[in-house]
Amino acid sequence: MAEAKWYVVHTYSGYENKVKANLEKTINNRHLEEEILEVRVPMEEIVEVRNGAKKQVQKKMFPGYVLINMVMNDDTWYVVRNTRGVTGFVGPGSKPVPLSAAEMKPLGVDTGEKLVIDLEVGDQVVVVGGAWKDTTGLITAINQSKQTVTINVELFGRATPVEISFAEVRKVR
User: Fold this and answer.
1) How far is residue 31's CA from residue 25's CA, in Å, rounded to a whole number?
2) pLDDT tens digit string along 28-44?
3) Hey, which residues does 9 pair with through a beta bridge?
4) Are the C-beta atoms of residues 137 and 151 closer than 8 Å to each other?
5) Which domains does the chain carry?
6) Cα 118–143–147 angle (5° rounding)?
7) pTM of the prediction?
């Protein structure tokens, strides 16, 4: 299987989040999770001053553009290109050009090496970082391509699945 790369898609202005939602729905419906790994609208925190009050707000880094981590083939190209709100891929003609690791680094996207873990479905783990820190749970799924594990945590008396990065879990011995 070919390697997934980051591509830039041009959208109608103001449709970035709608394109992201539509793409994610299509990915689930067509079972393309292994080929289209992530859809991202890059955001940045800025401080706005309105009526003398400072307010921290999220602003799109590139209005009119969406980043997609995907394996480029005819099927994935067709799905992305024919999503409502997408005007096309960024690149010469109809040939999309992937972004390099150097271009992705300032966007906060790590394209470095993948972690290899010695965890299996059914293992008990403790979360060592993030919002679920110090929570324990059983692994129900492992996604190597996204570098995440899904664990069940107890929330309001019910087992709730939560996706956690490999880097934030440790196996309970």
Assistant:
1) 10
2) 999 988 899 989 988 88
3) 66, 89
4) yes
5) 5-107 (3.30.70.940), 124-171 (2.30.30.30)
6) 75
7) 0.60
